[in-house]
Amino acid sequence: MTENKMLRVPRNYLLYLCVVAVFGVCWLWLSRIVPRARVPAVGTQNNGASFERWEKEIRNETLGFQKILCINLPERTDRFDAMRLAATASDMDLYFVDGIRGEMVSDRVLPLGAEKVLLSLGQRGKWRAHMDALLAVVQENLTTALIVEDDVDWDVRIKSQLVQFARGASVLTQPLRGSRPGFADPSFPNPNTKVEADSSQFEIDMADAPETVVPSDSPYGDSWDVLWLGHCGTKFPEAGSWPSTPLGRAVFRNDDTVPQTQHLGAYSHLAFEYSTDELQQTYPNHTRVVHHAAGTSCSLAYAVNQRSARRLLYELGLKKLNAQFDLMLSQYCDGKDGRQYHNCLTVQPALIKSHQPAGLKSSLSDVSTDDDDGMVLSDPFTNHIRVSTRINLSRLLEGTPTLVDSFPDDEPPTNFDT
């Protein structure tokens, strides 16, 4: 008969098991309340497979931002409906921020300097509406947000265009990959390193772009303040005129979403904007360029992050009012008129433009008071957008396979009837 023997466990081993058990319980409890930090992908290619995770985010319902905010006057139900349908057709999700009538903005709330600026009631209301949009970003603690006005339009291929824009933005502002120090743009981040040379020194052909570190915080890079995606015009920065602004250009050639050059400046009078002469005269057909903002106008669409939303709300909403909103946003970006420079990226041609539906031209703007003498637009129009979502809205909703190209290749500019 065998004798049953009790195994003795050393006391120090029991103590070890207790410590492990306590540590395990604490780890499980903490893991439920503290989110794991995202580990940045260090040393990966901008144009490699590791960028795919960001590409998926850009193709989501908020275009890679945490939220898309659309400013809309409540009485403009026509614009509300149109924007909601256009967003639905593009698989995008919008949150609306109420526009403000200028009569509702008291003189007492205007920042220092407003007494010297002749803002129309429309411009006054627009300023406050954009402040409210920035305030929403701050209050909701959004990491990033795209702010758009309610009359905008975009190409049906906007998500692919934004993937391209993100690659350009990263090449301009992300560090070079591997052991190579610095950035692809020799004038970034310190414009004082600029050398006297033609602009080609700062051009980066995106067909042969250097590899850069994949962003860790946003698909569009880790250091931007504003992404000015929708505007009425901008300029390529030059060393003499824009001393604080880096000169780099990310050049995308053979982009068939860009109209041929004969269409680029042909409709400026109709679209309330200055022409894209620099782009038209410098680059061949179907070229899009991502670069740092300089002298940009119209706040049709721009993205902010939490840091820049707070800065803008203070700078333009509390500290000083010396122009209409979009011009102050340009000052904020360019570091002019007593404001500090900030890292703002834009693109030519713009990816988001103002849409003009058929009908009375006087109904197009809630800011301008011009009545246009009863001028009627017989055809809808969006400048620079080839396959317009708004112009093709009925086809998109019906599932029609063929869409209208507003600016066909090898055709002269259209004579839009007004």
UniProtKB/TrEMBL annotation:
GO terms for molecular function: transferase activity. Keywords: Glycosyltransferase, Membrane, Transferase, Transmembrane, Transmembrane helix. The keyword Transmembrane helix applies. The chain crosses the membrane at residues 12-30. CDD domains: Glyco_transf_25. The keyword Transit peptide does not apply. Coiled coil: none annotated. InterPro entries: Collagen_mod_GT25, Glyco_trans_25. Belongs to the glycosyltransferase 25 family. This is Glycosyltransferase family 25 protein. It comes from Rhizodiscina lignyota. The lineage of its organism: Eukaryota, Fungi, Dikarya, Ascomycota, Pezizomycotina.
